[in-house]
Design brief:
25 strands; about 450 residues; globular; alpha/beta
């Protein structure tokens, strides 16, 4: 089964502020495309960016309704509107050819009002999947893609395509690492379109990845030439992506994962570096503690020169289980320790270069270093290299040892800040408990 998706890539003249879309005259000036701009392409649905319209803008909403009717396909578009307390709430709205527009998702992070604080929040209500013909789709919005338990739940509910519209220009390595990880770990196609902020020096592009981790290719509507989505940078364009759904939900083929395009980098000399040392002699995970080398048989806490370290052993393919990795950073927070995720294999299923891109996505999500090892020793170390959460692969030492810098190993507090900084203070614990329940409760069939 093949699905054809149209990704709208409009311009916007003003940037969002801390995830909040701009308001007022000129905030959204790009006109809604007309059917002529699709050049007769037969698509299954159209995706617009986050905060593409306000429901109070009757003319813009009417144009989206008309587009869905004239193309005879569903249209998904991000919206923003004030809630009952006049805080901005961001949603995803579905326009259908023969039905009234309906809200299908409310953003869980980086907005003035988020879904986690709703009184009646539940996964069934607030993490729905919806059908376009025989296709089941799940959705989140922008920074929600860092919350991997949301997408895990959507995939467990049958989603085979996951969309994550964002607002404007993003850091490529962060978005591509996380979106690729989500595609592979959940066996779905991941799609993200956004606005091109014409005032920013850094350009951007739509994103998309297949369940095997490869970047998707697209073409301009009405043209035949295919380009990787990372090369689709012409703004105010409609990009067409074809998805072969036979790939979705199939077992991971580790040998087909793409290699990392990020080389291993040595550390720069820095007076404030906070290094801990790792080794894996005969495949046994070991950490240099205050009492010398300590072998780790199970997830445990270790006292180091840099303070208490919680090392969570994640076996083999469980690296692709968002709940297993979340539990490591959750346990570290409970023990007031810095988290390290150690992914231990008896034998790697592919080259370390093929696993490293997934490690980068996980390190960004969990705000924690990740060590990869097998019976031959440590094979890869990935960590955050700066306050902007840019991941880096670190060079290994000739003696087989490795180091990780804990300066940016912030763990659960930072990973969940995109939610807790938005909700009223008295609801922060409730929001985390609701997210935590997605890891500790059985997934739906």
């Amino acid at each position: 089964m093949s699905v054809r998706v149209a990704l709208a890539f409009p311009t916007v003249p003003r940037a969002s502020v801390q995830g909040i879309p701009p308001t007022g005259p000129g905030a959204q000036s790009s006109p809604v495309p007309t059917p002529d701009e699709f050049h007769g392409e037969e698509v299954d649905f159209v995706l617009f960016p986050e905060a593409y319209f306000s429901p109070s803008d009757n003319a813009r909403a009417a144009s989206l309704t008309r587009l869905a009717s004239e193309l005879n396909v569903p249209v998904l578009a991000g919206a923003w509107s004030p809630d009952e307390t006049e805080r901005c709430r961001q949603t995803l709205v579905r326009f259908s050819p023969h039905q009234p527009a309906e809200t299908v998702y409310t953003k869980h992070s980086t907005a003035e009002a988020v879904a986690f604080e709703l009184a009646d929040w539940s996964p069934d209500v607030n993490l729905p999947t919806f059908e376009f013909g025989n296709l089941r789709v799940g959705a989140t919005i922008c920074h929600d893609h860092y919350l991997g338990l949301l997408q895990r739940h959507l995939a467990a509910c049958g989603a085979r395509v996951w969309v994550n519209p964002s607002y404007d220009n993003v850091t490529d390595i962060k978005w591509s690492s996380v979106l690729r990880l989500r595609a592979v770990e959940n066996r779905v196609f991941s799609l993200c379109t956004l606005h091109r902020d014409v005032d920013r020096r850094r350009s951007t592009h739509p994103f998309g990845f297949a369940p095997d981790g490869r970047e998707l290719r697209a073409r301009h509507a009405g043209r035949d030439d295919l380009l990787p989505l990372s090369a689709c940078r012409e703004p105010d364009a409609i990009y067409i992506v074809d998805l072969d759904l036979r790939q979705a939900a199939q077992p991971v083929d580790w040998q087909r994962l793409p290699d990392s395009d990020r080389p291993r980098r040595p550390r720069r000399n820095s007076p404030d570096v906070q290094l801990v040392r790792f080794a894996a002699p005969q495949g046994r995970p070991s950490i240099y503690s205050l009492a010398g080398w300590k072998h780790i048989e199970d997830s445990t806490q270790v006292e180091t020169e840099q303070g208490p370290l919680h090392v969570g052993l994640v076996p083999g393919a469980d690296l692709l289980d968002a709940s297993a990795c979340f539990r490591v950073i959750d346990e570290a927070a409970a023990n007031h320790a810095t988290p390290v995720i150690w992914n231990r294999w008896d034998r790697l299923p592919s080259r370390p270069d093929q696993i490293a891109p997934l490690m980068m996505g996980r390190s960004i999500e969990c705000c924690a270093p990740i060590v990869l090892s097998d019976q031959s020793g440590i094979r890869e170390v990935v960590e955050l290299s700066n306050r902007s959460k840019i991941p880096a692969r670190r060079a290994l030492e000739q003696n087989g040892e490795a180091t990780a810098d804990l300066r940016y190993a912030w763990g659960l507090h930072s990973a969940f800040k995109i939610v807790t900084k938005c909700v009223p203070r008295n609801l922060a614990a409730q929001a985390l408990d609701r997210y935590r329940a997605l890891a500790y409760s059985p997934s739906p069939e």
